[in-house]
Amino acid sequence: MIVFPAIDIKDGKCVRLTQGDFNLVETFSTDPAKTAKEWESQGGEYLHVVDLDGALKGCPVNLDAIKKIVNSVQIPVQFGGGIRNEESIMEMLNLGVTRVILGTSALSDKQFTKSMIEKYKDQIVVSIDAKEGKVAVRGWTEVSEIKAIDLADELTSFGLKTIVYTDIAKDGMLSGPNFAELAHMNQISKNIIASGGISSSDDLEKLKQMKLYGAIIGKALYTGAIRISDVKDNMEE
After folding, report:
1. What does residue 217 show for φ and ψ, rounded to 5 degrees?
2. What are the structural domains, with CATH classification, of the chain?
């Protein structure tokens, strides 16, 4: 199972939100590229970078920070936040991002999403963010009536290989992920990346036993509750 260190960017800084609330922001670093290098040095295999400002605005905003991250590390980067058109996808890939994450557009424009999956194949990831099982969009500020499990099923039928699943209620709470919902998602797609609430090596071990493709670690990394170097060998067994 791949462990993805998370770097969330707001106003050019590396921050963490609690339950996706933009009013509950904690700044961990003013230099996201330095943070990226730290996670790489600990043994991180793949970075998960999100432009929080971009998610709200509808287009990537923190381009300078993103470019510096990509140029500062040797490991691949997957990026999301405000990707709503092909121009933004191409811009990110040209910056050196390995995979681009669609979020809001996956729900609001199914035809666009399908065409991008067909064209860019494994370079496209979709992030399904859910609150009580329903899909949330636009930086988690709106909750739809669409069930996350139904959206995952439809996207998989389009040929999508990789899905990031986040339970918003768990995000930043260090209370453990939503194992039950992740188990359901894992029956639909075999490339599920768990996100939200992962707080310990025990959480990671359970996700590994569930045969999840990956797990994103955010707050637990920044608080020191998890060190990549401590869990990396176990994840590779």
Report:
1. -115, 125
2. 2-236 (3.20.20.70)
Range in 72-76, 140-144, 224-228 with the lowest mean pLDDT: 140-144
Q: Which of 78, 81, 71, 75 is nearest to 39 (CA)?
A: 75
pTM of the model: 0.92
- Cβ-contact 207, 181 below 8 angstroms: no
* Contacts of residue 21, Cβ cutoff 8 Å, sequence gap at least 6: none
What residues are paired with 99 via a beta bridge? Answer: 78
Distances (CA, A) of 11 to 15, 84, 172: 9, 20, 19
Residues with active-site annotation:
8, 129
